[in-house]
Amino acid sequence: MLWVASLCLLLAPSILGAPTNKQRQKVLLISFDGFRWDYDRDVDTPHLDKMAKDGVKALYVTPPYLTITSPAHFSLLTGRYIENHGVIHNMWFNTTSTEKKPYYQTQFVNEWWDNGTLPIWITAQRQGLKSGSLHFPGTASSYQGEVAMVQEVEPLFYNYKNETAWRENAGKVMDWFSNQDLDFISLYFGEPDGIGHRYGPDSPERKEMVKQVDRTVGYIRHSAEQHGLNDRLNIIITADHGMSAVYRNGLVEEITLSKIPGFSFSDIAFHLVDFGPSGMLLPKPGKLQKVYDALKGSHPHLHVFKKEEMPERLHFAKNDRILPIILWSDPGYVINGYFPVQFHKGEHGFDNQDMDMKPFFRAVGPAFHKNLEVGPFETVDIYALMCHILGIKPEVNDGHLNSTKHMLVSSTTTQGEDVDFLNNIFNGLAAVAGFLVVVFIMVTSHKLLKDKRKNKRSVSSDQLPAKEMIYQTSL
């Protein structure tokens, strides 16, 4: 019976479905800043169309409020709403000294980013994976003393429009995957946001930039194929927010706080305005109600809230960094402080429920279904999706895997994987048991046949003539 036991040991792994040679899945998260959900509708985008046919396309996704670059990108990396991860603005600020740092300098203020929430780079590395990031907001910071294993921060005055640099960056990422065996990389492109600001979302310049994005998507997918990554690499492409056209040329009554009756900047200790359609105010002690009463209802397209009165759906109140009064305007309007200083033709930062603020979403790779279009979901849900594909346990987050798991070829949750594993064991054991039954029957049949032949020989001996029996006995 030794051969039977050996055969069972050899067959057990295959019967149980053990993935003895299964390769770990990799994830590339790409953001094209300011790519609105419908930017591919008025431009020929063959590579994005091919990606949708080969994978998954969402109608649109909903970013967190505040719909600006750094906060929304950190939500992609953490799966948390902005009030929960604490990167509440593109600008670091100090309300006591009234100091502010612009977007690029804020990338290097470590305590602004390292605020108790871990990005996926660190979580993956703590669970045995390798992570990298190229130009993604938050890359320059360390988190609880740890950084992405491989990282590159763009230099000051970087040209975000340079298509040659885009291809070079895509090549670096593919080298990181293939030569350094990274498991997760985040890759950032600064367009079409800049073009959308300068020329507007409906401009010919924006359409040309979308064509450049499309060419780059094609280049990235071709590069992945050349590096032999297609059977392991899952590419997720999205954005931080959309873009809305700004009303100009005296077509509307602009929002200028200094012109509002009863409001005075002398009542304000610190403010963040003149940066688009959103703003925050810190009134001087005892002046909060006065400031609030002056601004509330002062303009038909200006929304004014005390921090504690903010709509819960926006998830932008429960953080000490958020100032006591929050302002935002309707699409097409911007908030000016003392006088108009903004001349952009396109802006973002509006309510995240406005359709102009919705980004796009594409995904392709071995984990995803093909030629599948899905309904909208929130960008905070992308974090849980990436953790699931990578096979890592996510940190506490505000996303839901249930919102995206239907996009996956294997659409089980982590708990479902445990159930499936137990089912596989049960089914495998049942198969082994069945195999042993077959072996038992074969062995038993063989023994019975052998016994039958032995009995037949005994019967034949009993029927020999007496003379032969005497001869045999004498022998």
From TrEMBL:
Q: Which UniProt keywords apply?
A: Membrane, Signal, Transmembrane, Transmembrane helix
Which residues are the signal sequence here? Answer: 1-17
Highest taxon above the source species: Eukaryota
Query: Membrane-spanning regions, if any?
Result: 425-449
Q: Which InterPro entries match?
A: Alkaline_phosphatase_core_sf, Phosphodiest/P_Trfase
Query: This protein is called what?
Result: Ectonucleotide pyrophosphatase/phosphodiesterase 7
